[in-house]
Every structure is written in C-alpha cells, then in structure tokens.
User: Which sequence fits this backbone?
C-alpha cells in the first residue's frame, strides 16, 4: 500500500512540490486554506458565497494528468479589460458552478478531479469561507488575508473567525481523517502566516496534528516575507509554527543552504519578498527537529524558488527512514 503524504498550505508554493510527488508511488493529499479574500477568489467568495477556489484550482492542476490544452483553459484568466469577467480564472468559475450544482464543495472537487484525471486528493480545510485575523507584534488587530499581507507588519499570532453570524467553525472531516491516517505531514513551502497557519488554527486541525503518528516535516522558505517575517531565520519560522501547533510536533526541517545571488532577484517584481532566510541549525535542533540542509534553490524569472524535484526526492527518502 502506498505511503500517505499530506501537504498543508496554500498559495503558489505547494504545487511546486506536488508536481514531482505525483509521479512517485505515494497516496498524496493536499489540505488547503479557505481564508483567501483577494483577487478572483475573494470576489467569488463574496458574490457566490463559496470557499475561495484559487489555491484549490492550482493544486488540482499540479496533480492532473489531463491534456495540457485542457489545463491551459482551466488556468486561463480573463484580461482586465473584459470588465465583468476581469481577473477571473476559468477554473475558479467552474469550481463555483459545480459547488452550486452539487450543493457541496467536496463533491464539486471530486467531480473536477475526475475530469482532470487527478492523482491524489484535495481537501479544503473547512467547507465554509473563513476570515483570517492577526495580531501584530505591536498589538494591532488586522482582519482579512489580503489586508494582513498588504499591511507588511511583523505578526505575532493568527486565528480564524466565521464569515457569517452564528456560523460554527468546523474542520472538514475529510481533512481530519487524512491527517490522522497519514504517514507524513508536510507544511509548506509558502507564506507562514497566510498560507500555512490558517489551516492549523481551524478548530480540530491542531488537535489532529498533535495525535497523528505521522512524521511531520516543515519546508522552510527560501526568502522572508516583507514585514511579516523580515530577518526570520529558518528556526524562527519553525518556532512560530510550533507555537501555533501547541507542541514541538515537527520532526524535520528542510532548509536551503545555497546562497541566492545578490543581483538576481527582482525585488520590485516580487514585492512580497524581502531577504534570504538565514540558517540556524543549532536553534532548530533545540526545537527537537532534524536539520536537513541541502541545495534546494531554483533560480528563475528573476526570483528564488524551491527546486521541486530536489525537495520531493528528500521527502521520499525521509519517508523511507
């Protein structure tokens, strides 16, 4: 029976690692945040009252074995001069339509998974859209993922609240079952406070992560995020993750040891990044985690990214250990 790997996050980081992992003999599941309120996802969650579909769409594509022309259509985003449809991705609209037709977002994802020939499972962490909240280090309260990201302020803690009055916040049972039956849990890569932690703070998720027998791995970011994690080391990222988990649950940290050339990154183009994450192996070990330091760097498009093939190879070796 294939080993079960559960990846937790959102944004653009997860698909980079998922693409090579779907080629391996593993049972892969992605658990995705439902707190995104910007762009096409934000508009659809407001107008159609569904969970934000953007991260789900990107992960479906990463897991898909469908014809590339179909995937290009699924990912196509209408141009800004198209007025009513401006900025919407076709896949987002299809997820919204199927959710209305079936009355259940999980059923909508299952149907799309069939059409797109998905290898793996994609579960929203909750079936209702949630609001992400944050407390800054200065004590200010920020509400909404887009507002938190735009504020570029150092953050202390995040939590979620309901988007409707009297709505009970519940984790998706499928996500909880996946966590409890996993052989490995992988956090990231992705924005610590707005992609990874919004999953963990959903009631029921942290508790499941505290009792699962799975080996838990954190993929440390290559670059810090402006305002939110300026000057954070890889160990400081881990410390925040452990604090929100309630225990030192992470057993291994994948951290990039290769230097990003000073003149390569276009910081204006990639406006959310700040500087390269520094390594602090001794601090990671004090948090009871194994340090896995390798060359994980991929330089492209004037930015610094994870090399998905290299990361996937290390994850699979840890799984065998």
Assistant:
């Amino acid at each position: 029976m294939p080993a079960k790997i559960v990846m937790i996050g959102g944004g653009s980081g997860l698909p980079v690692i998922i693409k090579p992992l779907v080629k391996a003999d593993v049972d892969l599941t992605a658990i995705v945040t439902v707190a995104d309120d910007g762009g096409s996802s934000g508009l659809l969650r407001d107008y159609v009252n569904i969970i934000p579909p953007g991260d789900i769409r990107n992960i479906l594509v990463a897991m898909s074995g469908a014809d590339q022309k179909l995937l290009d259509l699924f990912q196509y985003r209408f141009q800004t001069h198209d007025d009513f449809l401006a900025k919407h991705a076709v896949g987002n609209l299809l997820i919204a339509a199927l959710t209305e037709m079936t009355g259940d977002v999980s059923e909508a994802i299952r149907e799309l998974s069939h059409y797109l020939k998905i290898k793996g499972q994609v579960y929203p962490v909750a079936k209702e859209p949630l609001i992400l909240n944050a407390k800054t280090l200065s004590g200010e309260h920020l509400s909404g993922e887009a507002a938190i990201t735009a504020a570029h302020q150092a953050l202390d803690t995040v939590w979620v609240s309901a988007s409707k009055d009297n709505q009970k916040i519940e984790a998706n049972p499928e996500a909880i079952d996946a966590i409890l039956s996993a052989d490995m849990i992988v956090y990231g890569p992705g924005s610590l406070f707005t992609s990874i932690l919004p999953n963990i703070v959903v009631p029921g998720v942290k508790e499941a992560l505290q009792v699962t027998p799975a080996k838990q791995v954190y993929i440390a970011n290559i670059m810090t995020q402006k305002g939110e994690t300026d000057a954070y080391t890889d160990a400081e990222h881990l410390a925040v993750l452990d604090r929100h988990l309630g225990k030192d649950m992470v057993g291994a940290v994948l951290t990039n040891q290769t230097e990003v050339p000073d003149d390569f990154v276009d910081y204006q183009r990639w406006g959310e990044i700040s500087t390269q994450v520094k390594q602090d192996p001794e601090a990671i070990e004090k948090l009871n985690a194994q340090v896995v330091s390798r060359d994980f760097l991929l330089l492209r498009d004037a930015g610094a990214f994870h090399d998905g093939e290299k990361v996937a190879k290390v994850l699979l070796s840890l799984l065998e250990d």
